[in-house]
Amino acid sequence: MLATMLDADSSVNSSSQALAVAGPSSAPPAPPPPGSADAFQWTAGKVVLSLALFLAAGLCEIGGGWLVWQAVRLHKAWWMALLGAIVLFGYGLIPCAQPIDNFGRVYAVYGGFFIILSYLWGWAVDGTRPDTGDWVGSAIAVAGACVAFFWPGR
């Protein structure tokens, strides 16, 4: 029985190897090796796009969360929670438009922008003015996020 299993396994492996060599026609191309001519390069347009997407994502996440907060914590209309959920879904889609393909880096860097945008939302919408510590902490977070995201040679 073991010999039969091994024979079946080797025939599956042979088929898999043949398929891997031939490759399915819909498979995406392999990413270019680091440092190659096709490697990702930051341009002014990509930087502006990334920053605009971080702003849009922040407004959707904070705005959607604020709407849910209004409905749940402040007992406002139920439709505010529904609208908030829809806006939060939009927030989930926006980072997919970032020009880099590194999920972890995009979301980590977005966290720095989220901090300052949350304070600005609270000030503009709820009237809670950030204090000096809020501003300094936000500046450090955004500066760190920009270093992490735009570091040359990646």
UniProtKB/TrEMBL annotation:
Organism name: Chlorella sorokiniana
Phylogenetic classification of the source organism: Eukaryota, Viridiplantae, Chlorophyta, core chlorophytes, Trebouxiophyceae
GO CC list: plasma membrane
Membrane-spanning ranges: 47-71, 77-94, 106-123, 135-153
Keywords noted in UniProt: Cell membrane, Membrane, Transmembrane, Transmembrane helix
Name of the protein this chain belongs to: UPF0060 membrane ynfA
One Pfam family hit: UPF0060
PANTHER family (alphabetical): UPF0060 MEMBRANE PROTEIN YNFA
